[in-house]
Write a structure and sequence with these properties.
single chain; about 170 residues; mainly alpha; 2 helices; coiled coil; NINL protein; phosphoprotein; cytoskeleton
Length: about 170
């Protein structure tokens, strides 16, 4: 039992010496109380600053997020407006193309009518030339008839005079 007690005592002394060495090592690693308090204050200040920075970053992140949402909504509105404007322009273009096609058809019809009118005018000019020639021939014929009529009137007048001379002579 004495041997066991000595062994236990020796073990306890060794453990105590080891603990003493560890305590001394910790004491050497320890910072003085004043410096520890300064470090604690600095740590608290830095933690405060860190907290404030985190809050500020959080606010900025929220603000940026809201701004991004607004920008996205504005972008969507702009895109929608652009799409509507493009659709309106497409409708206008289709309407203008339809009007142009209609006008082109009208112009083709007018061109065809103009061509027909030119042909009619040429035909009328031809007929007019024929009528002018016929009129000229008729005028010449009328003049010739008037001259013959004049001769006949002169002959009739001469016959009347002759009859006028013969009738009193034959009555007597």
């Amino acid at each position: 039992q004495l041997l066991e007690a000595k062994a236990s005592l020796s073990l306890a002394q060794t453990q105590h010496a080891l603990q003493l060495q560890q305590a001394k090592a910790q004491m050497n690693n320890m910072v003085p109380k004043k410096q520890f308090e300064q470090l604690q204050n600095t740590l608290r200040e830095e933690q405060c600053k860190t907290q404030q920075l985190q809050e500020s970053l959080q606010q900025q992140a929220e603000q940026t997020c809201r701004q991004l949402v607004r920008t996205q909504e504005e972008h969507e509105h702009l895109v929608q407006a652009a799409v509507e404007q493009a659709e309106g322009l497409e409708r206008s273009l289709r309407n203008a193309e339809a009007v142009l096609a209609e006008r082109a058809a009208q112009l083709r019809d007018a061109q065809a009518q103009l061509s027909r009118n030119k042909l009619l005018i040429e035909e009328l000019r031809g007929e007019n030339r024929r009528f002018a020639m016929a009129l000229q021939a008729a005028e010449l014929k009328q003049k010739s008839m008037e001259e013959k009529n004049q001769l006949l009137e002169e002959q009739a007048s001469a016959l009347k005079q002759l009859i006028g001379k013969i009738t009193p002579v034959s009555l007597s």
